[in-house]
Specification:
243 residues, alpha/beta, Rossmann fold, OB fold (Dihydrolipoamide Acetyltransferase, E2P), 5-stranded antiparallel β-sheet, 7 helices, 17 strands
Length: 243
Amino acid sequence: MKTKIQACIIDDEQDGRDYIALLLENEFPEIQITFQASSVEEAYIFLSKNSTDILFLDVQLTDGTAFDLLSKFKEIDSQIIFITAFENFAIQAIKSSAADYLLKPIRKMDFIIAVNKVLENIKKTKSISGHSLNDNKISLPTLQGFKLTNISDIIRCEADSSYTTFYLTDKTKIIVSKTLHEFEEQLVKYNFFRIHHKHLINLVHLKEYIKGKGGQVVMADQSVLDVSVRKRNDFLSRIELLE
């Protein structure tokens, strides 16, 4: 399974969100919309718990501005395309590390150019960070060197102090002397979710959820893993976003 690039649309107007969604569907089928919102508060709640590759961000929102939202974060690891009806916001958008900005009403060609630009940025970033957008591989360091592993072949990752064990679809496992947190930052964009301080799972290989105080998941390798009480609601919300 090839993982899609994830995008969020934050715009105070439903028509605006619908138009961007339509353009993405028609012109960029490789991009998946994982979240939409109209306010600073809604966007903040989602982005504080999830990451996204591309953020379409309207300057004027129902309860503030895009800059109010960005000020809540030290850093957002997303390509941001600002959307505004006022050209005077362009300079402020650029200062906020925008990849590009679009003026309303959005012209189709301007949109295509802006999205192609951020896709190229993402491609470069993925290659530098150790896995390619094209082949969806991750480099796992070992005592002998490293192993290039297909991300889609990873069922789950398990933390053990400063080590992480990767469980693969071919029933092999790879032990790496890095913390699970380091890999979580890389893999969250590929439909991975940390259900517990010890467990990061690939949602593609999730087979079953069993209700309980926190609940449990059954993975493709038949492993049964606990979902922490603290993670339960976020996990169930994340599942609802999957196609």
